Structures are given as C-alpha cells and as structure tokens.
Automatic annotation (TrEMBL):
Organismal lineage: Eukaryota, Metazoa, Spiralia, Lophotrochozoa, Mollusca
Family classification: Belongs to the ubiquitin-conjugating enzyme family.
Name of the protein in its database record: E2 ubiquitin-conjugating enzyme
Residue ranges with Basic residues bias: 180-204
Region named Disordered: 163-204
C-alpha cells in the first residue's frame, strides 16, 4: 500500500465527485461506520467499521483503507484492512477480496456501497474466494475453531480503546502512517493485551 498522494493522477471531475461523496458520508454515515478523512489528500479514504453483532467480530472496531487507482472509477479501488483480522476474504497484508471490487464492479458504484459491502462481508464471509485459506477451511469444516480464532484476533487487535463518537467524521493529517497513531496510554494497554494472549493465540 502506497502512502503517496494519488490526487495528481485523477482528473478534476473525479476528485470533485469523490470529495462530494466523502462530505455526504461524513454528514450521514452508514450505521456502524465512521469515515476518517485526510484534508490534504482526498483520495486517502479510511473508515472504522464496527464488528456486527452476532459475529466473531462483534465488539471490535476495524480500520480499513480504500486505495483509488489512476483509472478510478473505470477500475475498482483496492480495499485493505489496517486492523489485523482473521477472515477468509482478507489476506495477510490486509487486502480484501470481494466481488464488488472485482468482476461485479461498476463505475456508478460509490464509496458508500463499498463500505457497506465490506461490512456485510464481516457478517457473511465467502470461503469460495478465500485469500486466507486457513480461515476459509475452518469456516467450512470447523466453524467453532474459526469463530474462536476470529474472536481472539478481535479481542487482541480490534478492541476499541476509547469511546468513539457516533456519526462523526474524523480528520487525520497526511503525515500519519497507514496505521493510525495511538496515544501512549492506548499503546501500553494494547501491548499488555497482546502479551497476555500471545500464548493462547499460538495454541489455536
């Protein structure tokens, strides 16, 4: 994933359309999704998705990023989870595999549709197009083991460490890395959680 601005590669009318849609999403975000914008690079689109209830991801907050290529919207953007997650359709580098961003892509599909599709993927994984073969195999053959592993990843990597504002649009600076910077206190708590559950995770 490149952190280089892609604004210069996109035509002005696409930049305007993206900017307009992001502004609308900030004003009226989909349920359980919060947009994180970059004021210096409108193509740096990130969002936090709440793990849906009734899934192994419930209670987690998953950060994702959309990468708009120079041929967007003729070609689909790439989507990545920045939060580590155990899911059949998410590769080890965070890349998300979903038909909406592959064969089913249409230029008129907007950013909101993509975000909702990714959220739905947390509810209904598709083991037939698995990027994580282990997760896909467990989902089909040993669901309880799959669920336990996914819950463990959620507990360690995706637990929100502070309350988040509902229906808020958060702004971030271009200098931030692909992973959101955490406050020192948050980092200590996360490190503590990782140490406590590292041995358990290895046994799974």
């Amino acid at each position: 994933m490149s952190s280089i601005s892609n604004v210069e590669n996109l035509p002005p009318h696409v930049i305007r359309q993206v900017s307009k849609e992001v502004a609308l999403l900030c004003q009226n975000p989909p349920e359980g999704i919060k947009i994180i914008t970059n004021d210096e690079d409108i193509t740096d689109i990130q969002a936090s998705i709440e793990g849906p209830a009734g899934t192994p991801y419930a209670g987690g907050m998953f950060r994702m990023k959309l990468v708009l290529g120079k041929n967007f919207p003729a070609e689909p953007p790439k989507a990545f989870f920045l939060t580590k997650i155990f899911h059949p359709n998410v590769a080890t580098n965070g890349e998300i595999c979903v038909n909406t961003l592959k064969k089913d892509w249409k230029p008129e599909l907007g950013i909101k549709h993509i975000l909702l599709t990714v959220k739905c993927l947390l509810i209904v994984p598709n083991p037939e197009s698995a990027l994580n073969e282990e997760a896909g195999k467990l989902l089909l053959e040993q669901y309880e083991d799959y669920s336990m592993r996914a819950k463990m990843f959620t507990e360690i990597h995706a637990k929100p460490l502070r309350p988040t504002e509902e229906n808020a649009c958060t702004s971030r600076e271009a200098g931030d890395g692909p992973m959101a910077k955490k406050h020192a206190g948050d980092k200590k708590l996360l490190d503590k959680k990782k140490k406590e559950k590292k041995k358990v995770l290895k046994r799974l």
